[in-house]
Structure formats: C-alpha cells, structure tokens
C-alpha cells in the first residue's frame, strides 16, 4: 500500500516547506532564534516549536502536560491556548535542541508518510479534541507549514517559495474562505458581486457572488459592474488573509474600486486564520 493519490499533493507540499524551514534555521546562532516574526507574539523559535509540536501530534504523540503563563498577551481564546502549549514548553530550548528535534520529527513524519495507507476519509485527532479527516489534517498541515515558512523568511530576510507547492495549497485554502468574508463578515448586499484580481508568483481572478438570500459562492468568471473590486499582489493577499499585516499598512499595494464602505468592510474582515 502507498499514500492515497488525493493525499500526495499535501504530502509533497508539506515536505517542500518543512525542508525549507530546516534549511533556513539550521545555520542560525542562538540570538537569531529570538527574532520576531509576522505571526503575532511568536519568535523564530516559537514558529519552529509550533511546527514540531503539530507534526508530533500528527504522529500520535501525547500532548505535553504544561501550564501556560498568564501574561501571554497574544493568547486570547481556547484555540490559541491549544496552539501555545507546544510552543511555550520549548521556549527555553537551545538552538541545537531545536534543530535536532526538528530534524528527528521530519525523519519520523517522512517515515509515517511513506507507510501511510489509510483512506483519506479516516478520522484522526484534530485541535481541541475534535475529529477531522486525514485529508483535512494533511491539507491543514501543508497550509500551516507553508505560511510559517513565509513567517520565517520575513523574519530572517530570506524571501522565496512564493509559488511553491505549499503556496498553491494556501491559495485554495484561502479562496475557500472568501465567500464567508464577503457575504457574511463584510455583509455584501444581496445580488451583488465582488471581484479579486491577484497577480504575482500565484495569479488568479475570482468573483464572489452573493445571492438573494445573502449566501456567497465563488467562481473564476469576471463580473460586469461589480459592487467592489480589488487588485493586489499574491504576497499582500496571503499576508492579509493570514493576519500578518493590516490593510492600512499595505494600502499602497491594494487598488480598490466600487463602494468604499463595502471595500473597507471586506478589508477589515479579510483575516481568516485563527
């Protein structure tokens, strides 16, 4: 038996990004592990701790028994508390400890993927004691690891891989959330359309259409006379959608047309990651 074809895309994307992360952090000296990243509240060490921790959970390892400090300003809900546990437990680990654990975790996960024969619909452990399918879990890991690779690249001044396999997984993940952003969170009017024209290493044109009942759908056809339209580059798009920058901070990289109140509401609602 081998990995199901529908899972191979996510395995390949995860491998590409996690290998890039290993290459980025292996030469770092101790002080560089403390650099701030665009991910709120997390340093380079924290990002790598998160990657290690969640891949250990994919391996079925027990979660650490650990009490979080009360003064973590960036931890404001239960999902963030869940994610912070694997991070805080490693906050005082040295650079050699971090790189060796990362390398060992990658070796273990690669072995797991080589031997993975489960059906994509198999239920596995998700965050906060939830159950999700294996396919969803692997898709989320590929997305998560690519986004955090980009966090590290920004912190370390090493741009790249904006069009890697993980970038295309991220594009699909973020686009799937766009109808909710436009129709529900931003409250676009019924029977309206909003167009997103994204250029750069990953390019796409998508229209979110809101029906008479206020439900949003997305397709790749243009719309004549949309209520609002956005033109921006791929890096700005995913950094906004992942909460790495505010719309005000990148206003010079976004061209908007149409109803100014609606465009402002969409940009305020653009972040879709927890």
Task: Give an overview of the whole structure.
It is a single chain. The protein is an alpha+beta fold. The protein has two domains: 5-160, Up-down Bundle (Four Helix Bundle (Hemerythrin (Met), subunit A)); 177-268, Nonspecific Lipid-transfer Protein, Chain A (2-Layer Sandwich), CATH 3.30.1050. It is 46% helix and 13% strand. It is built from nine helices and seven strands; from the N terminus they run ααααββαααββββαβα. It has helices at 5-25, 44-58, 78-88, 95-114, 134-156, 165-176, 178-185, 234-241, 260-268; strands spanning 123-125, 131-133, 192-199, 204-210, 216-219, 228-233, 254-258. Strands 5-4-3-6-7 form a five-stranded mixed beta sheet. Strand 1 (123-125) and strand 2 (131-133) form a beta hairpin. It is globular, with a radius of gyration of 20 Å. The mean pLDDT is 96.
Secondary-structure blueprint of this entry?
Elements: H1 5-25, H2 44-58, H3 78-88, H4 95-114, E1 123-125, E2 131-133, H5 134-156, H6 165-176, H7 178-185, E3 192-199, E4 204-210, E5 216-219, E6 228-233, H8 234-241, E7 254-258, H9 260-268
Parallel strand pairs: 3-6
Antiparallel strand pairs: 1-2, 3-4, 4-5, 6-7
Helix pairs in contact: 1-4, 1-5, 1-6, 2-3, 2-4, 2-5, 5-6
Short description:
The chain has 274 residues and is an alpha+beta fold. It is built from nine helices and seven strands, in the order ααααββαααββββαβα.
Low-confidence residue ranges: none
Structural domain tally? 2
Helix content: 40-55%
Architecture of the largest domain, CATH level 2?
Up-down Bundle
H and E string: HHHHEEHHHEEEEHEH
Radius of gyration: 20 Å
Organism: Streptomyces minutiscleroticus
GO molecular function, one term: metal ion binding
Pfam families: MDMPI_C, MDMPI_N
Protein name: Maleylpyruvate isomerase family mycothiol-dependent enzyme
């Amino acid at each position: 038996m081998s990995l199901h074809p529908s899972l191979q895309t996510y395995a390949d994307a995860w491998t590409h990004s996690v290998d890039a992360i290993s290459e980025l952090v292996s030469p770092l000296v101790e002080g560089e592990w403390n650099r701030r990243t665009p991910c709120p509240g997390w340093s380079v060490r924290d990002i790598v701790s998160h990657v290690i921790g969640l891949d250990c959970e994919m391996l079925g390892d027990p979660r650490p028994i650990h009490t979080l400090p009360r003064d973590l300003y960036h931890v404001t809900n239960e999902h963030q508390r869940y994610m912070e546990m694997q991070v805080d437990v490693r906050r005082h680990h040295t650079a050699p400890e971090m790189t060796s654990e990362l390398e060992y975790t990658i070796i273990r996960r690669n072995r797991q993927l080589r031997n993975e024969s489960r059906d994509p619909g198999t239920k596995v452990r998700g965050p906060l004691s939830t159950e999700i399918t294996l396919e969803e879990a692997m898709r989320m890991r590929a997305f998560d690891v690519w986004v955090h690779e980009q966090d590290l690249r920004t912190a370390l001044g090493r741009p790249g891989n904006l069009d890697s396999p993980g970038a295309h997984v991220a594009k699909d993940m973020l686009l799937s959330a766009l109808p909710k952003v436009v129709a529900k969170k931003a409250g676009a009017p019924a029977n309206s359309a909003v167009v997103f024209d994204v250029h750069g290493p990953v390019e796409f044109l998508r229209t979110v259409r809101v029906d008479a009942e206020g439900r949003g759908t997305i397709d790749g056809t243009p719309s004549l006379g949309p209520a609002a339209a956005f033109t921006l580059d791929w890096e700005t798009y995913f950094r906004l959608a992942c909460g790495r920058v505010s719309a005000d901070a990148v206003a010079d990289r976004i061209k908007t047309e149409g109803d100014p109140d609606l465009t402002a509401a969409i940009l305020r609602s653009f972040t879709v990651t927890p």
